[in-house]
Amino acid sequence: MAVEFRVLGPVEAGITDDADGSAGGSLLELGTARQRCVLAVLLAEANRLVQTEQLVDRVWGEQPPQQARGTLRSYVSRLRTALAGVGEVTLARRPGGYLLAVDELAVDVHRFRHLAVEARASEGARALALWERTLELWRGEPFAGLDSPWLSETRALWEHEWFAAQLDRFDAGLHCGRHAELLGQLTALARAHPLDERLASQVMLALYRSGRQADALDHFRQIRERLAEELGTDPGSALQQLHRHILTADPATAGPPTSMTGGRPSVPRQLPAAPPLFVGREKELAELTAALHAHVETGAKVVISAIGGGGGIGKTWLALRWAYQQTARFPDGQLYVNLRGFDPTGQPTTVETALRGFLDALGAAPAEIPADTDTQATLYRSLVAGKRLLIVLDNARDTGQVVPLLPGTPTCAVVITSRNALPALTTTHGARLLPLDILNRDEARRVLTEHLGAERIAAEPAAVDELLRHCSGLPLALGIVAARAVMHATLPLTVVAEELQQAAGRLDALDVGEAELSLRTVLSWSHHALSSEAAALFALLGLAVGADISRQAVASLAALPVARVTTVLRQLETAHLVLQHAPGRYRMHDLVRLYAAELAQSLPPARREEARSRLVDFYLHTAFTAERLLEQARRPIELGRPAPGCEPHALGDVSAASAWLDAEHANLLAVQHLAVEHGWHTPVWQLAWCLTTFHYRRGHHQDLAMWQAGLTATQRLGDPAAQALAHRLLGGAYSKAGMHAEAVSHLTQALALAEQAGDLLVQAHNHFALATAWEQQGNRQQALTHATCALRLSSALGDPVWEAHTLNAVGWYEAHLSHYTPARAHCERALAIFGCHGDRTGEAAALNSLGFIAFRTGCYHRALDYYQRVLSLRRDLHDTYHQADVLEFLGRTHQALGDLDRARSAWRRALESYRTQRRLEDADRVQRYLAALDGQVPAVPGE
Question: Domain OmpR/PhoB-type, which positions (predicted)?
Fold first, then answer.
């Protein structure tokens, strides 16, 4: 006999003849709805202690009855009676709460998750069978008939898990050829989730494999229109690729589908999309493969292939084509960087920037990335050591830009593209050079045939010959010519050839070494084929800075509505002048970008300045909104109104703000540089201010350049107040980066400026920052002195929130100096003030201080409660950097209470976070804690 607990439906407990419940049985009487709610919470947390207060909150919500604890004890007693004699099920009271000990596989939600993990690790028919067993456990709405805020939230989360499992089952079924059987279920679910692109791809694939190609294409049309109408976006690249495959009846689509599951990959996959149409280059592809084989046979240090050739010759496409052919040889992933060695609108990518991108992809945390390039390169080589990685360094300017990015391990391979030959790589690193020439005439003709079709090519042989002559085998030129002809299917190719001839001679500075290969001819002709609105937008894009640009930023640049910009950008995409490399984000090929920049220079100077001003204001005002969402209690700076035509991006909450800053961080740095170049000093320092909280919460402690530029800008403005702010925040950045002398110097200058101005609040801020700087150096007495000064000043100002911050700081330093009684009083006052004013950042800081005090004074249960509340707040604030610190102290507190399993769990999570953030000293310390747990009696670890 066995017991089966069900919560994926009505909360029930049944006695069954077999452990899997297959032989039927009888249901247990579990009492009232509220009593079953208690059981539901304990089942959801099976084998884990649920604190009494937590259980009360989950069962009754924010307004429990006056005798909730007594009622809870009664419910637990009745449940214990109902479960008596059932088997290995124990409902026990533990210090601080209750624990339901049970075989997790007897609880349907835990069995659901167990089977889902097994299914995701399986393949083929076994995976499908496991998914079907998994979903059989779902018997309706979770916790049916019960309700509380926690149950509602958990129900929604579990329904998301069910939805993801359904999609995984559909993938497995489609892989096994069950498309006809699944089609009805797929279409029904798609009606309920009309914007889900993964589900749409499954419907399209099932329709196509059922012989309904037209219906599959119509389904794509429907979701594309709905996405545009409701979200203002286009389908993602995976869905668009499937659409192309169905449109062309690609044989690969008849096989197993490509998974579109989300989530961050476990290995870096940075390669841009593979070339959609690739012709020729068989000899070069074979040479790259031969170099790889020779490397394996000779045991060379690392295989390096350098593809050389002029602009537009197809170096990147060849590198990517070969890279995708070889992905199976490199299971640890692929790294890619565009080094922009010949970027016509800016400087080449610096070695530091390239290394930073690689380190981020390899899991290095911003906070622990060294400041100097040599040490960054050392860390990079350490992270790739022993891994089978393919590294593509695209568009390198010279050998010096490449060498720091080369790994030292023989398991890696490197492919480099450059317009320069890079002969030094051959002598110093044994690179194999592969010069790339233009396509021969047959290959070039095949390119046009692939795009335009054999019938159209055969109909006008003379015009085709003329096109081939003007394109001269240059892949980029051939692609743009083909795009023009495809856009105007009724236009005779003779007319296309004549237009190409008439536009000759406009891009002479960017030929590829032969006079007849003028890219200006092709690009200007493509530009003139655009509508006037698209042509104007294309020219304005030549003013944009950064690696890419969002749809919203383009709208402000052009002073157009976002919906209209989306339509115009689609025209530029069709003409191969921009690429939407991610939903709503666009970039241009270097050569196309140069041509756009040339066009921009022909605009009236006033129009250029207005467009640049709108662009800077877009980033500044959106970043300001993001900063205010991240830290509402911070005293804001004053911004002017955005330039006319600028519409900053609307951000709804902290999550949206964090996501936008993550996506736009590099562009924000580039925009600040643009403002520096144009002498727009005010937005220079204001942009730095807007990123302060983001840098703090992401651990970007090495990103000093923004405030270095900000300080210079304030000095040129001659604004003492702004200078004081810049000195203070630059000093804080130096302090977090471990550059203590520089930190104290700038903070002292900031304090002097504030004292000269008689600004007591700014003086308080600077004393507060000096306290932090001295704490970083280990001088807590000096830190307490400055914190006390900050408190004295803030108390006289009538600013309760800022006074609370200084109260907490004083308490924190007092606690570290073992003055626990005044420390607790100061921090409790701070917490009360923060609570009254809704300052969640302040609450987290004060609770953290109180947790430390409780821990140091042996009040471990109180410390546990404080730290759990801090962790919840840090998560809500998206403060990833400080969550690890809280987890470490949670582990220490659990250990002090003798709960070694929970201590181990918290420390493992802290260790994972520290390692992800590359906080090596912190990780080593926690690793020692974990190692000491084996055979250890409960004890409080030392600091």
Answer: 3-102
Q: Report how far residue 6's alpha carbon sits from residue 43's, in angstroms, rounded to the nearest whole number.
A: 9
Among the three residues 816, 850, 873, which one is the final residue of a domain in this structure?
873
pLDDT by residue (tens digit) across 339-377? 888 665 557 888 888 888 888 888 776 766 777 788 888
The reply to whether 498 falls in a domain is yes
**Cα–Cα distance measured from residue 751 to residue 770, given in angstroms and rounded to the nearest whole number:** 9
With tokens 């609450």, the residue in question is 843
CB 74 within 8 A of CB 118: no
Residues 349 and 450 placed together within one structural domain of the fold:
no
Amino acid at 257: P
How many other C-beta atoms are found inside a 10 Å radius of the C-beta of residue 490?
4
Q: Which CATH number belongs to the domain containing residue 232 in this structure?
A: 1.25.40.10
* pTM confidence score: 0.55
Write the CB contacts of 176 (distance below 8 Å, at least 6 apart in sequence).
124, 125, 128
Distances in Å between the Cα of 532 and the Cα atoms of 487, 519, 588 are 16, 21, 19
- How does DSSP classify residue 938? S
Contact 389, 333 (CB under 8 A): yes
Cβ–Cβ < 8 Å for 801, 829: no
Say if residue 550's pLDDT is above 90. Answer: yes
Residues 832 and 924 in one domain: no
Q: Write b or e for each residue in 584-600: b if 16 or more Cβ atoms lie within 10 A of its Cβ, otherwise e.
A: bbbbbbbbbbbbbbbbb
The per-residue pLDDT for 872 is 92
The answer to whether the beta carbons of residues 143 and 11 sit under 8 Å apart is: yes
Order of strands across the sheet with 50-51?
A: 50-51, 97-101, 90-94
Q: What angle do CA 743, 744, 748 make, to 5 degrees?
A: 120
Cα–Cα distance for residue pair 907/887, rounded to 1 Å: 6
Tokens 């970039």, residue?
587
> Each residue of 600-613: pLDDT tens digit?
988 999 999 999 99
**Which among 416, 389, 423, 412 has a CA at the least distance from the CA of 402?**
416
| 47 backbone φψ class: left, alpha, beta (φ>0; ψ -120 to 50) | left
- Domain boundary, last residue among 858, 873, 888: 873
List the one residue out of 814, 808, 800 whose CA is nearest residue 843. Answer: 808
CB 321 within 8 A of CB 282: no
Bridge partners (DSSP) of residue 585 are 550, 582
SS (H, E, C) 16-30: ECCCCCCCCEEECCC
Q: For the beta carbon of residue 55, count every other beta carbon within 10 angstroms.
A: 23
Chain-centre distance for alpha carbon 552:
19
- Kindly state the tokens that stand for 490: 């009724």
DSSP structure class, residue 105: G
Residue 743: its H or E element:
helix 740-757
Q: How far is CA 772 from CA 94, 622, 747, in A?
A: 41, 29, 11
Please tell me whether residues 733 and 863 are part of one structural domain: no
CB 401 within 8 A of CB 337: no
Residue 826: which domain range? Answer: 799-873
Compute the distance between CA of residue 549 and CA of residue 667 in angstroms, rounded to an integer.
8
Upper half-sphere CA count for residue 375 (Cβ side, 13 Å):
6
